[in-house]
Amino acid sequence: NAGSNPSMNVQSTSAPSTHTNVHTEENHNDQEEEGEQLQEDEFTKPFCAPTQEVAESSSHNIEQVRRNPSRLVQTRRQLAIDPEMSKGYAQEEGIDFEESFAPVARLEAVWIFIAYAAHKSFLIYQMDVKTEFLNGPLKEEQAPRAWYDELSKFLTSKGFTKGTIDPTLFTIRYGEDILLVKIYVDDIIFVSTNSKYSKRFEKLMHSRFEMSLMGEMKFFLGLQIHQSLSGIFINQAKYTLEILHKHGMDKGQIIGTPMATKPKLDADLSGNPVDQTDYRSKIGSLMYLTSSKPDIVQAVCFCARYQSRPTEKHLKEVKMIFRYLRGTVNMGLWYPKGSSFKLTAFSNADHAGCIDSCKSTSGGIQFLGDKLVSWMSKKKNYTAMSSAEAEYVA
What tens digit of pLDDT does each residue of 240-269 get? Predict the structure, then answer.
């Protein structure tokens, strides 16, 4: 995971065994003398045997054992006070670790990348790195971060420039031509004004890393992408059919809208509760689908507010979204080639739309030319006093 939390680094100790020679004869005698002083809740090794000069653990040579092999097996109470044991939850940034996250491209950045390729009539190629986490030296306990650092250093050493706002975008110019590279952990997409530079980049990556060239980009981050002479089409038809079948919604009536024009959803404290796990599973499936279907964002975000105590009323609204999806499986985003690239943004907000808190919900979409690249729906964390105020801060 290109995760943001430091990974736990808890060293394990072997369970007591009559065959493990980890104590010297002196330690054995000392334990017999001090046995009466041990507390009842402390764990002691009842079977101790004399050891040889060179001791071994059950599975590793003594040189590979990081702790003192002559010490007793630790209990949980002893682990809590033992300064030698690593406790990941107690690590502090700047002391135990520096950076434990790996930069990952925002999905909006991917849309802009694809929209620009469509605008310039570029053909997008895709590559995948094999065993990417084994390439970088592990300075921190975060393999994705080590891989990104290794790849970043390699590309910059070859003349690439890393983006200041988006560190996952790398560019290089060859006279009037340009090569653009977008990194998403081990998935790499790239375009160029000249196809020979795309081939050169392919050879460059193969010379340093073990790569698999997928050729023309067709499937990226769960998105189905079709590139044609007239433009680029993106959707998640395969995933949509999968979640419809998973949740038993692949049959039944099809509706034309994902929700009512003015939904009257509230906490429904007197309603009959439904299975919380199933409700959250449905919401999670739909949330992933919103990455390519802006038409369901508003409805899904409304239903997602009531995951703590869902009722039959909320479940009915969620099923409406699934019935809408059945009729729009093959719909998606269309980025025509050669069109304009002017930024246009729209935003709106209701006033006290949330029945429970009287807070407003704002929404917005952004186009580059006629290519939709960003969309959102969010409930505000304050209460607007008028519709003008709600729309002004939307």
Answer: 999 999 999 988 889 999 988 777 788 888
> What residues contact residue 115 under an 8 Å CB cut-off, 6+ apart?
335, 341, 368, 369, 371, 373
The answer to whether the CB of 258 falls within 8 A of the CB of 324 is: yes
Q: What is the mean pLDDT of the chain?
A: 77
Cα–Cα separations (whole angstroms), residue 330 to 15, 114, 211, 224, 374: 56, 19, 32, 11, 20
Task: Give me the helix-helix angle, 276-289 and 237-246, nearest 10°.
Answer: 170
SS3 279: helix
Considering the four listed CATH numbers 3.30.310, 1.25.40, 3.30.70, 3.30.230, the one that applies to the domain covering 107-233 is 3.30.310
- 288-329 pLDDT, tens digit per residue, is 999 899 999 999 999 999 999 999 999 999 999 999 999 999
Residue type, 13: T
Residue 341: C-alpha distances to residues 124, 231, 335, 366, 367 (Å): 18, 14, 11, 12, 8
CA distance 394 to 387: 10
What does the block give as tokens for 330? Answer: 């093959």
Q: Which residue ranges make up each domain of the chain?
A: 1-99, 107-233, 237-326, 340-392
Cβ contacts of 75 within 8 Å, gap of 6 or more: 41, 42, 43
Residue the block writes with tokens 């081939």:
199
Alpha carbon distance 387, 288 (integer Å): 31
